[in-house]
């Protein structure tokens, strides 16, 4: 019989490529991961891995087994959801991941509504960038998460996860008010305020500028949109900000709407859509989410 925990390790290895990366992501030691994968090979009776230098490549049998692992893990999520639905009332913890503006704008009213409907359910929120969500969901560290994607940075497909659309919001070019109106192309020579490299917000700005025919010259790297707008207001650069990040901008900032959007989605492990806690959380979000509109 194949061990489900070892199948999870094989699935992570297929995505990360090295034993060390799997160990770091799942807080194991590399030797423990190697031992568990060796045990899985013994259970399977065929070679699942080939080592090429420091990387590990899955054999055809290993690749096929990952496909079966995805199906098995999805069915286990469905089983857990059905068992939870058979219980009376929602209890226990619901581990939620969310990006900063969602934590500030979307979660407070949704959590209040959730507490009113299901007082025995204990939501636990962790703020993180959407780029970190997928491995945390796959590893079981999170149950559900709010993620976003941009027109220029679509979400990468992940067979282990499902998403439901929640809302979308417009994007704005933030420039000093003294500079007058501007387009992206007008700002090719300006200093830019970008998010931290490796985040989706950073990739969005870089790709949007590239689509306008230039590479942005980064002066500052700042993740908090309120701070970004404060720096724009004193002439420290220009930036792209979403609607939720542009609420109550300081004086001295001009916000010009752009023909691009940021979309927010609810993400969870495939097979878990029917889990009553996740369904209740999604319903609370949808009942409380603001309707965004472009600024005049």
CATH C-level class of the largest domain: Alpha Beta
Q: Which superfamily, in CATH terms, is the homologous superfamily of the largest domain?
A: Periplasmic binding protein-like II
Helical fraction equals 40-55%
Task: Give, in spatial order, the strands making up the sheet with the most strands.
Answer: 4-3-5-10-6-9
Report the span from N to C terminus.
Answer: 63 Å
What is the annotated CATH architecture of the largest domain?
Answer: 3-Layer(aba) Sandwich
Tally of DSSP helical segments: 10
Q: Please give the radius of gyration in angstroms.
A: 22 Å
What is the overall shape?
globular
The helix-strand sequence is: HHHEEHEHHEHEEEHEHEEH
Give the class from helix and strand content and strand pairing: alpha/beta
Task: State which percent range the strand residues make up.
Answer: 25-35%
Mean pLDDT metric: 89
What would the CATH topology of the largest domain be? D-Maltodextrin-Binding Protein, domain 2
Report the biggest beta sheet as strand number plus sense, adding barrel if it closes. 6 strands, mixed
The count of domains is: 3
The unreliable regions are none
Number of strands: 10
């Amino acid at each position: 019989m194949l061990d489900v925990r070892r199948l999870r390790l094989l699935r992570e290895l297929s995505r990360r490529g090295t034993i060390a990366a799997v160990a770091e992501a799942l807080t194991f030691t590399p030797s423990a991961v190697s031992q568990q994968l060796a045990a899985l090979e013994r259970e399977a009776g065929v070679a699942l891995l080939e080592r090429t230098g420091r990387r590990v490549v899955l054999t055809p049998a290993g690749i096929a087994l990952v496909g079966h692992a995805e199906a098995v893990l999805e069915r286990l999520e469905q089983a857990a959801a059905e068992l939870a639905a058979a219980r009376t009332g929602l209890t226990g913890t619901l581990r939620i991941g969310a990006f900063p503006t969602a934590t500030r704008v979307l979660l407070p009213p949704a959590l209040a509504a959730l507490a009113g409907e299901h007082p025995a359910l204990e939501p636990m929120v962790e703020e993180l960038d959407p780029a970190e969500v997928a491995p945390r969901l796959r590893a079981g560290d999170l149950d559900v998460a709010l993620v976003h994607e941009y027109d220029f940075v679509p979400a990468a497909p992940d067979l282990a996860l499902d998403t439901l659309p929640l809302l979308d919001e417009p994007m704005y070019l933030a420039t000093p008010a003294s500079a007058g109106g501007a387009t992206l192309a007008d700002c090719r020579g300006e200093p830019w305020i970008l998010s931290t490299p490796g985040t989706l917000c950073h990739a969005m700005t870089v790709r949007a500028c590239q689509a306008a025919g230039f590479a942005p010259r980064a002066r500052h790297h700042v993740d908090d949109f309120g701070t970004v707008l404060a720096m724009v207001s004193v002439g420290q650069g220009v930036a792209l900000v979403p609607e939720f990040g542009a609420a109550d901008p300081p004086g001295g900032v001009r916000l010009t709407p752009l023909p691009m959007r940021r979309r927010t989605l609810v993400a969870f492990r495939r097979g878990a859509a029917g889990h009553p806690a996740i369904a209740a959380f999604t319903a609370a979000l949808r009942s409380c989410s603001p309707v965004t509109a472009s600024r005049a």
